[in-house]
Amino acid sequence: MDRKLEKKFWNKKRILMIGGGGVVAMLLLYMLVFADHRATLNVEKDKITISTVKKGTFDVYIAVTAVVMPLKTIRLDAIEGGYVSRKYLDGGSMVKEGDSILRLDNQHMMMDFVNHETEIYRLRNELQNTRLSIRQQEFTMQQNISDIDAKIEAAQDLYDRNKQLVEEKIVARQDFNKNKFELEGLLRQKDIQLQSQKYQQDNAKMQITQLEGTLARTQRNLELMRENLNSLIVRAPVSGQLSSIDVEVGSSITAGQNIGQIDDLNGFKLRADIDEHYVSQVFAGLKATFEFDGKSYDMIVTKVYPEVKSGRFQADMTFEKNMPEGIRRGQSSPIRLVLGKSAEAILLPLGGFFSDTGGNWVYVVDKNGNRAVKRNISLGRKNPLYFEVLEGLQPGDQVITSSYENFGNKDVLSF
Questions:
Q1: pLDDT tens digits for 233-269?
Q2: How far is Cα 144 from Cα 192, in angstroms, rounded to an integer?
Q3: CA–CA distance, 27 with 204 (Å, rounded to integer)
Q4: Does the structure show a pLDDT above 90 at 400?
Q5: What is the DSSP letter of 98?
Q6: Using CA atoms, how far apart are residues 337 and 48, in angstroms rounded to an integer?
Q7: Most CB within 10 Å of its CB: which of 213, 389, 392, 402?
Q8: In degrees rounded to 5, what are phi and psi of residue 23?
Q9: What is the DSSP string of 198-240?
Q10: Angle at 394 between CA 392 and CA 395, to 5 degrees
Q11: What is the CA radius of gyration of the chain?
């Protein structure tokens, strides 16, 4: 007789189903707890720049472009105005001290000079005539005094004789008094003549002194005018190269106008344009390095021009010892300007990443080299080659230093 068979609960099919579900559940649990859920972007490794962080000497300097200039430049300014009648030399010519460069004409100055010469001749004649007139007056006064002295002598003799005779009553008292009054009048007349002569002498001295002073001042003015006329010929104040002359024959020049310059070729300096960000850090005495023809030359900042134009200011630098041969005016060259002391630091090469992150984070390549992970960092100073790393990186780390513009906000880059 047939017997009913009961089905087993744990059959093979059910065991397989439960086991499979458990495996799936375990996989889901693992993905939920342990899997990497960070946003990932696939990138091509050959299109990015990877740099190695290292430890080394951090040099505090900036690279600036400088132009070679003469150590000394002398401006040529017109002392007097006029029009250019002749041009002896052109720009670029070598000149010696005293060489004529150009000639100006000024008719007004010529007329003033001639008038002053005429005035001097007139003053000289007037002075000579005044001296002659005074001399003649002195002779006349001396003649008058001599005549009065003769009359006084005769009257005195008659007075002395009559004084005795009137006492003896030989001469009348009336005649004696008349003689006495005549003598006294002659004495008063002589005194007046002497006073008049003294006054005329004093007045003559004053007139001569005034005329001589006027003549001396006029002569000094004439000498100044002669010097100004001589300055119409513009001459080289020093030897060197006439680097520029900005006038042509027939052009009008005003007093004080710049007409060119002369470069002293006995030495050169370099003038650098520097970003205004460093205006408080650049001062006289800073060191700099100039590379030329494969050699390095030490320089020093000698003058800083604090005026900022278009976001830049200028500084002059001179060579401390030897000056390179072969440099020419107008050449431009990079200069390494030292702003502080060197120090040991962790160094990260410069790159486009900084404009995207502000130096707050970077992508660091893992040890396998298959991906790069975002990491927060802190940067300090920078020079033209490196950033100074303060936190977040160690020597040997591989960092993507090219631009992050195309990476969005991904946490992981996969190669």
A1: 888 888 888 877 888 888 888 888 888 888 887 788 9
A2: 11
A3: 135
A4: yes
A5: T
A6: 31
A7: 389
A8: -60, -45
A9: HHHHHHHHHHHHHHHHHHHHHHHHHHHHHHHHHTTEEE-SSSE
A10: 155
A11: 54
Find the length of the chain: 415
One-letter amino acid of 116: H
Q: Which residue carries 């008038």 as its tokens?
A: 115
User: What kind and span of H or E run contains 316?
Assistant: strand 312-319
List the one residue out of 328, 389, 355 whose CA is nearest residue 68. Answer: 328
Other CB atoms within 10 A of residue 19 CB? 10
Q: Amino acid identity of 389?
A: V
- For 86, the token pair is 């002749």
Which residues fall within 8 angstroms of residue 75, CB to CB, at 6 or more apart? 258, 260, 261
- Contact between 268 and 66 under an 8 Å Cβ cutoff? The reply is no
Residue 79 near residue 254 (C-beta atoms within 8 A): no
Checking phi first, is residue 311 left (phi over 0); if not, alpha (psi -120 to 50) or beta? left
Could you identify the residue written with the tokens 């009648």?
A: 85
- Residue 104, token pair as written in the block: 């100006």
Whether the Cβ atoms of residue 412 and residue 375 lie closer than 8 Å to each other: no
What pLDDT is stored for residue 267 in this prediction? 82
Mean pLDDT, rounded, for 122-150? 81
Tokens 């047939």 locate to 2
- Tell me, yes or no, if the pTM score tops 0.70: no
Half-sphere exposure of 361 (CA within 13 A, CB side): 11
In the structure, what pLDDT confidence band is assigned to residue 38 with cuts at 50, 70 and 90?
low
Please state, in angstroms and rounded to a whole number, the distance separating the CA atoms of residues 357 and 380: 14
As beta bridge partners, residue 61 has 338
Q: Count CA atoms closer than 13 A to 93's CA, side-chain side.
A: 15
Which stretch of DSSP H or E encloses residue 176? Answer: helix 173-230
Helix H, strand E, coil C: the string for 2-60 is CCCCCCCCCCHHHHHHHHHHHHHHHHHHHHHHCCCCCCEEECCHHHCCEEECEEEEECC
Residue 412 in contact with residue 372, Cβ under 8 Å?
yes
What whole-number distance in Å separates Cα of residue 261 and Cα of residue 246? 9
